[in-house]
Structures are given as C-alpha cells and as structure tokens.
Amino acid sequence: PSGEMGLEPLFQAWSYFRRRKFRECADVCSQLLERPPGEQELDSEYTVFQAAWNLKTRALTEVVYVDEIDMDQEGIAEMILDENAIAQVARPGTSLKLPGTSQGGGPSPAVRPVTQSGRPITGFVRPSTQSGRPSTMEQAIRTPRTALTARPITSASGGYVRLGTASMITNPDGPFINLSRLNLTKYAQKPKLAKALFEYIFHHENDVKNALDLAALATEHAQFKDWWWKVQIGKCYYRLGLYREAEKQFKSALKQQDMVDTILYLAKVYLRLDQPVTALNLFKQGLERFPGEVTLICGIARIYEEMNNISSAAEYYKDVLKQDNTHVEAIACIGSNHFYSDQPEIALRFYRRLLQMGVYNCQLFNNLGLCCFYAQQYDMTLSSFERALFLAENEEETADVWYNLGHVAVGIGDLNLAYQCFKLTLVNNNDYAEAYNNLAVLEMRKGHTEQARALLQTASSLAPHMYEPHFNVAILSEKVGDLQRSYTAAQKSEEAFPGHVDTQQLLKQLKEHFAML
Q: What is the pLDDT of residue 230?
C-alpha cells in the first residue's frame, strides 16, 4: 500500500516529520500502528511497528516542545515556598535579589525606569526579566500582571502543566502511551527507543517523576557513561526544585562531553540559587573552550544587565553583534541603553536596523516614535506612534503608546492633549502607575489638590518601587502644611531612590521644622 505520490507510508511519515508537519506525520504513523506488527525494516534492527511508534512519539513531542533553556519562569509558589537558604545580606555585586548592590553604578531611576525588583527596564522582554524577586508575598500578588513589571506568574509548574494538557488534543481517543502500564526497565535497555520515550514523557505528558525514573534506569544501563542521560536527569531535578542535585548531574555531564547547552543549564541552576558571579565565571570558562559562542556571551550580558552593571552589559552585547549581527536581543538592548544614555539619534539607528531585519511590531514603532521625538525629528514621531497603535495586539501595548504620546504632548506644551492621552492610557490599562502619577501632576497645575492626592496614592500603592509618587505626595503635603505625612512620604521616596537630591533637601527642611517645634 502506498500513500501520497505513491510513497511507502513510513517514508511518507518521515517526510512529513522533516517538513515539520507533525500532525500529518502522527496520523500516518497511527495507521501503520493499526496494522499487525511483524515485518522487519531493511538495514535496521527495528520492525516497521517500532519505527512508526518511535516516529509518532517524536512527532507528538515536537508539537509541544519548549526549549528548557529559555523557559525560566519563577512563580509565586516557587518563590515563597523556596527552601534554599540564601544569605540575607549579600556582599555588594554578588546577588540578583539586591540589584542596588552593583559596583557598576547603573543608571539612576531618575533617568531609566526600574521594575518592581529594582532593576532597570531592559530593552528586550525575556523570562528572567518578567519574573522579578518581590520582597514580600503581598507585594508579589498586588503588582499588576504584565510583562512590563516584575510580577511573578502564579506558578511555573502550572505553566508546564498547561503545555502538557494542550497535547491531549492530538489523541481524541485518549493518550498515545499509557504511562502507568509501561515497563520502564525494558525500555531503558533499548537506548534509541528510550530517548524518544523520555522526551515524550517529559515534554508531552509533563510527568517529571516517570521521566526521572526512566532516565535513572537508562543511565544505569549505559554504565553512567552517556552524558545525554545525565543532562536529562539534571533537567528533571531542576524542574523538581532540587537544584544542588541538578548541579551535580550537569557537572558530571560536562566532564564527559563539553556542550554549550549543558553550560547554559548549569548557569540556570546558579542563577536560581542567586549566584550570578558563579554563573559569570562558568560562562567565561565556557568561552575559553567555545570562543565566540553567541549564547554564552549573551548570557554574560544578561547577568550584568540584571546586576545593574549596564556598561559591562553593553560591551558584551556589542561582542554578540560581532559574532551575529542580526541578534535581535543585543540590538534592542544596545538601542535602549543609548536612548537612556541621552543618545536618541544612535538608538534610532539600532531600531531602524531592527526594522530592516523584518521586526515589525508595536514595541518597535513605539521606540522609534520616542527616539524621533527626542532626536527632534518631529515629522516622523506621530506617524510612528500611529503605526504602533495600529499594530498593538493588546490593551497593555495600546496603553504604552498613549502614555508616550502624553509625554510628547507635555514636551510640546499641549497640556490638554497630555491629559487626554494619560486618561486613554488608564482606559486601556487600569494599573498604569506612571500615568496616575503624571495625571496628578497635571491636576496639581490646575490647582485640584484633592484629585492629585487621590491619584498619587493610587500610583504609590500600585508601584511602591517608584520614587516619583512618594516624592510628589511629600511636596503636596508640605504645601498644605501636613508635615507628618510629607515626612513619611519623603522617607519612602528616599528608600526607593537613595540618591535623589530633592528628597534629601526636603527631608532636611522637615527635620529643621520638627527641631523648631
């Protein structure tokens, strides 16, 4: 019997797999598996039945496959129930949990906005910047849930389970492999089948415990000489939160076979244990063995950026571009760094480069609009923002564009337009603390003190990590003579941004007032 274009069915299934048509591949394999098992494949120790089973397993895995290296999201459950004890007072420049302790002297919050975890906003959204490390459970839950803040997702394991359940659609008549009835010892002795089966259990069924059992049996069968199984056991331990055990497995695998992926997994373990310096050293040792490896250089740049050492991060991103000049993350991060270093013209060149490469989304046009405005190319500013509004995929993105248009309006002196833009920002995203703060400033200019105070209180409760709402409350309270409230707010402002000169002057004045009393 022959399939499409007279092809032998197994070859046709393989052809579908190579062309990434995994659904069709799985269907052809299902038809083959319904036939009686028996005939031997030529040039192979497999029967056709085993070959079809193996191919279908791989096809179903590929449908839901997620690269574990980039899938690094720390949920609220993982954060609060974390049993790994970490030094409460880390040495300066050795912890991601206290980003203020960097020796690099990163940009001040007055120039570059920070996320809830105290790190400056990066030029590129990635899992590690999305989930920050809030100090308290209350703060973690109260923060608005967008990628722009460092609000953690509810639970990382929940994310994996959702990926796993999506795969049930592939088999309406129930799961393809019944894990509870599998004899794992038997499969562990067939290395080629075992590897496909492991990936299926790990990615498709999301059953980490069974996957770990299979990997342990298989590595024993291979007499602990197969590095691939050690990496898989490490991945299982990582997923189960056993970071020290994962570290041992990855180190053992690296001794047997030097692989870039294993280095990246091991660095992920160190970052989760809040040991960025160890991760940096690991990457640098990896670069000696794999010179010019982009993922390793990029890993170093990310860590420096998370530790608020922006100048070193920019250097490493430039090294990334020397090796791969179409690396979107590096271009975006260098662009945002130039923008916040008061060089919008240079930032504009980097964002234009992204546009030439075919990146075409709301965020890029938003950034182009801002760069054009600050570089005084006013003819392009509004058309970029119009394009950004047209391309916005959700309300958060629309809110961002309106917020930036509000800034442009303030810049050209049209305060009524600015007022409307900030209002539209809040219509699209009710948790936009910066817009509340700026609306309050406009209300103060109109002399509406009570409205301004209400807006500022909303802003400071939504974003306790921002110093502006606290400082504005302090100024407002001082003007109306409420010195105690002013002093409390000024202290909060100083906590959020210790180097703010105006806050320090206000605190000094208030202390003099209290001394006179």
A: 96
